[in-house]
Amino acid sequence: MNMNTKVEFAVNFEDSQCENKVKDSLHSLDGVHSVKCSIEKKLVLVETSLPAEDIRSAIEATGKTAVVIGIGDVFNLERKKSDGSMSLKQRRTGDLGEVVADDHGRATFKLRDEIVKVSDIIGRAILVTGAPATPQKRLGCGIVARSAGLFENPKRICECDGVPIWDERNKPLAGAGRRDN
Q1: Contacts of 179 (CB under 8 A, 6+ apart)
Q2: Are the CB atoms for 9 and 66 separated by under 8 Å?
Q3: This protein's superkingdom (predicted)?
Q4: Which of 70, 74, 81, 102 could form a disulfide with 150 if both were Cys (CB 3.0 to 4.6 A apart)?
Q5: Is residue 81 domain-resident?
Q6: Dihedral over Cα of 90, 143, 172, 151: its sign
């Protein structure tokens, strides 16, 4: 079973020296299987078994800003119709597993599930509850949104407010300071 994912990043390359730094940084990581760069399009395509956040951090360690703009090649599981009987490999859906946050409250994870596919939960609400001992404690919720697949997002400037993607994380998500330089 191939557990690799292709992740597409917009990277503010300036020249081949920047490109080489990014390639060297990524090739030094266990779990990175291929790296393709385009200075002209300011893109990096990485085939990896690592979380996208690890790849982004490695790119940004070179001094370049990186933004995930597409993810693809998700393991495509067989879709079978159920006759109502269940085998040991089947289970009820709903519990997507356990996520543990670090001391700063940040959690980065990658979920592979043989029953629940991302396409099945896009547009649906998801609820994060407390530890197994306190599952009734609600910690957060949200709606699962679709991100772009590979090469489906050529945007470099947010159409709604004109903020370049390189600057988005340094601006408030909304409000008066969003458009200020």
Answers
A1: 161, 162, 163
A2: yes
A3: Eukaryota
A4: 70
A5: no
A6: positive
The more confident residue out of 164 and 45 is 45
Q: Which amino acid is at 138?
A: R
* Buried/exposed 2-17: b ≥16 CB within 10 Å, e otherwise: eebbbbbbbbebeeee
Output phi, psi for 10, to 5 deg: -90, 130
In our burial notation (b when 16+ CB lie closer than 10 A, e otherwise), range 54-64 reads bbbebbeebeb
The pTM of the full predicted model, rounded to 2 decimals, is 0.52
Taken as a whole, the chain contains a residue count of 181
Q: 128 and 164 in one domain?
A: no
Which domain does 57 fall in, by range?
5-73+150-169
Q: Nearest-CA neighbor of 108 among 73, 69, 166, 56?
A: 56
Residues 55-89 pLDDT 10s: 999 999 999 999 988 886 433 233 343 344 434 44
CATH number of the structural domain spanning residue 45: 3.30.70.100
Q: How many whole angstroms separate alpha carbon 170 and alpha carbon 71? A: 23
Could you read off the pLDDT of 115-134 as tens digits, one per residue? 666 666 676 667 677 666 66
